[in-house]
What does this fold into?
Amino acid sequence: MPEQRPDKRLVADSFSRAAATYDQAAALQRTVGSNLLDRLPADFAPVDLIDLGCGTGYFSRALQARYERSVIGLDLAEGMLRHARQTSPMLSRWVAADAEALPLRANSQDLIFSSLALQWCPDLGCVLREAYRALRPGGYLAFNTLLEGSLHELRTAWRAVDDFVHVNRFMPAGELQHILAASEFVDWRCEVEEHRLYYQRLGELTHELKALGAHNVNPGRPGGLTGRARLRLLTDAYDIFRTDQGLPASWQVAQILMFKPA
Ligand SMILES: C[S@@+](CC[C@H](N)C(=O)[O-])C[C@H]1O[C@@H](n2cnc3c(N)ncnc32)[C@H](O)[C@@H]1O
It folds into this structure.
């Protein structure tokens, strides 16, 4: 999670602009979301469920198919919701809202699912309080989030160029554990998955991040374009990490299952 809080309007705008390109670039997002789905107990049969930070609605549709129940897809970005609604007008209810202020009644949901969205929330503790309030006893919050170490190659390479904030900051694992332990959920499990993607050119990675809407929206980001000389410096600095498979981009993903006791 960013140390300085990103502006939520910029987060929403960035994802809204990326709605049309997101799905083609979202291979890692598909993998880690599916891994999260697999962690839900096989005999769990939720009646009311919500996909928090649903984006284009890929996992809203997956949840609907798995549980054969209507799903609420909730997201901050109107553009993402428009895209989701056009893709599957009949499937889900799409709601524009903030995960830190859920427009849901207390004890109204059996499952709150959220894949790769909550790292954009400045106050994860607040999201957990909201989720606990909205869940019925016996319900699950299943979410994943990015941890420190994600995109460390890109962060290190940028440091060879300047001191601006170019890469979103992600929460250290210890801080996440602390927030989970401080929440009202007493029964929870957290496992960390490491993923590494490879690219032949740095431009492939930066285009992919842009297509995903995963822009740097932190205070302290540089303004304007990156000049040719700076780009050369960045490319050379990243090339230090090159392996036989290409340029690596590392991702640390915490997969978390939290249970509200019956
Ligand atoms: C990387 S996308 C993930 C989308 C989808 N869950 C998936 O796995 O394909 C992150 C989504 O979280 C949404 N988001 C970011 N901050 C949010 C917030 N505070 N409340 C609700 N949604 C938020 C973004 O608008 C974006 O659509």
